[in-house]
Amino acid sequence: MAVMKGQVLVFVLAIAFIGCVVSYDRPPARKSISVLQPKQFSSTSPQQVHISAVGPDKMRISWITQSSAPSVVEYGTSAGAYTKSATGTSSSYRYLVYKSGQIHHVVIGPLDPNTVYYYRCSSDSTRQFSLKTPPAHLPIKFTVFLFYVIDYTNVCALQGDLGQTGWTNSTLQHIAQSNYDVLLLPGDLAYADFVQPLWDSFGRLVEPLASQRPWMVTQGNHEVEKIPIIHSTPFTAYNARWRMPFEESGSTSNLYYSFDVASVHVIMLGSYTDFDPDSDQFKWLQGDLGNIDRGKTPWIVALIHAPWYNTNTDHQGEPESDLMKQHMEVLLYKARVDIVFAGHVHAYERFTRVYNGQADNCGPIHITIGDGGNREGLAKKYMDPIAGISVFREASFGHGQLEVVNATDAVWTWHRNDDVSVVSDTVWLRSLSSNPACKS
């Protein structure tokens, strides 16, 4: 990546498999990339547009302008015909010598489910966007990855540890070909690591997709960006740029929250904020799980950044994994959470249903999907022999798709980036709420 002009401080973070498990000729690493502001943009042109779900029938539109502009979104169901408008707020932040542009957040709605809306930001007629709202009922498709999004008919996509490399671009291209409803990202978005212009580059990189479908994210270690004495407030850029619907779920922090989509309750947890039994996050999670109505949301999915189960030699013994699991695993188990997605480890691994280190038919399936395309490369060594609870593992970049078909059945598939048409791992799942043996 070319060095960005005006960047005077660079900080390097040392973030902490034994043989490769799958015989596979892995492609080489790809160069870092940066996305500069288009020359035709003015100082008030909306850029880095992305959307997130707010409650059952609203969307938050977020964007940045280099100078002051109206925090207004005009929208409607026909292209160019904006029959409604909403006004929000704007702010900016400083990080050392860097000053952000104006960051706008506007909530629009109520919106009809499974409907395409057209919109423009800051009354700028030169940039027009469209979004599709998720369905109100199953099926739904999620894309999951770190960082990668996928699609099914009414499904969500997942990915983690995206970064800004040639592999990131490949992942995004694959996502663009899918028809997902919601993207879930378990942390490590821009890999800015204190270099704030990389947040702007990342926003431009993902805008073509993030402006069309809700991207629901949580934080990873690369979002902390805390420097003792010099900049003691963590998550400054993340909280300012990627505002999630935490208030609507009763949370007091943008670092953990939950939301419902179709018949799925999604819980986004914070691996890098307090999680012990005396913490606000722990108490919030207890309350959130206690309020779930499995008649309305028969599926529960949770996202963390640092995996609680991991047979890769990378990221072993970290408190964000071990202590968080020690404190919170029992809460998810008693609530019969179906799936826990994690990132952090730059590889793919799927576990069987597990609890307290043992196979358990009433425990969640844990899936590490930290293979979106980060600059640090793959974690290629695993511990041997393989743990009895680990079902499939491979050090490759890729993406995953979760299609929740109905109240009892869902299918998870994982694809390598370089042979995306081939399903490398797949499993059909039954919801724990439909298993009589798991009734509490």
Main attributes of the structure:
440 residues, alpha+beta, Immunoglobulin-like, Purple Acid Phosphatase, chain A, domain 2, 8-stranded mixed β-sheet, 7-stranded mixed β-sheet, 25 strands, 13% helix, disordered N terminus
Describe it for me?
Strands 15, 16, 17, 18, 19, 20, 21 and 22 form an 8-stranded mixed sheet that branches. Strands 11, 12, 13, 14, 23, 24 and 25 form a 7-stranded mixed sheet that branches. A 4-stranded antiparallel sheet has the order 1-2-8-5. Strand 12 (156-158), helix 1 and strand 13 (182-186) form a beta-alpha-beta unit. The chain starts with 46 loop residues before the first strand and ends in a 10-residue tail after the last strand. The protein has 2 domains: 41-133, Immunoglobulin-like, CATH 2.60.40; 135-438, Metallo-dependent phosphatases (Purple Acid Phosphatase, chain A, domain 2, 4-Layer Sandwich), CATH 3.60.21. Helix 4 (280-290) runs parallel beside helix 5 (319-334). It is an alpha+beta fold and 440 residues long. Helix content is 13%, strand content 29%. It has helices at residues 166-176, 197-210, 236-241, 280-290, 319-334; strands at 47-54, 58-65, 72-76, 84-87, 89-91, 94-95, 98-99, 102-108, 116-121, 129-132, 140-144, 156-158, 182-186, 215-218, 257-261, 264-268, 299-303, 339-342, 348-355, 358-359, 365-369, 390-394, 398-404, 409-416, 423-430.
